[in-house]
Amino acid sequence: MQNTAPKKILFFAHDSLLYGASLSLITLLEYLSKDNSFEIMVLLPYGGIIEERLKILKINYKIISFPRCVADKTNSIRLRIRKILNYYIRKFTILPEILSESYQFKPDLVYTNTSVISIGHTIAQKLQIPHILHIREFGGLDFNFNY
């Protein structure tokens, strides 16, 4: 007998606005939400307009303030180091809350919507499940980011 339980996917969105990557994510979520083979949970770093779309699609989401993992190359070295340290402090401070949500949801897969956030990879490693990183941009080339 085949397992008919829906596959659970935990999505990490990098912002809550509706621009390129987020619109693409909404399109994917809309498609997957029509298929009863998937149960979806989206984690957002802050509230915003994307919430209305998720509500319309009846997709579960939570707002948990996780950080981005990039620093602008134009900053001074001292400021870059400070931003990197701040990133790790924020990441490891919020990690228990995200792990708790992840353990409750019990995903089969973690999907990170863009390369400017790394927490999805960390969660997938901790849960020992597959992770998809959707690379939509080249941070250094497109945005002058330093990873």
Kindly describe this structure.
The chain has 5 helices and 7 strands; from the N terminus they run βαβαββαβαβαβ. The protein starts with 6 loop residues before the first strand and ends with a strand. Helix 4 links the parallel strand 5 and strand 6 (131-133). Helix 3 crosses helix 4. The strands form 2 sheets. Strands 3-2-1-5-6 form a 5-stranded parallel sheet, with helices on both faces. A two-stranded antiparallel ribbon has the order 4-7. It has helices spanning 20-33, 50-56, 77-105, 119-127, 139-143; strands spanning 7-12, 38-44, 60-63, 71-72, 109-112, 131-133, 145-146. By secondary structure, the protein is α/β, with parallel strands linked by helices. The model has no long low-confidence stretch (mean pLDDT 87). It is 44% helix and 19% strand.
Give the averaged pLDDT, no decimals: 87
Poorly predicted parts: none
* Strand segment tally: 7
Biggest β-sheet: strands ordered side by side in the sheet: 3-2-1-5-6
Question: In percent, how helical is the residue content?
Answer: 40-55%
Shape: globular
- One letter per element, helices H and strands E, the order comes to EHEHEEHEHEHE
Structural class estimated from helices and strands: alpha/beta
User: Number of DSSP helices?
Assistant: 5
What value does the Rg take, in angstroms? 16 Å
The amount of beta strand, in percent, is: 15-25%
Distance separating the two termini = 46 Å
The biggest beta sheet reads: 5 strands, parallel
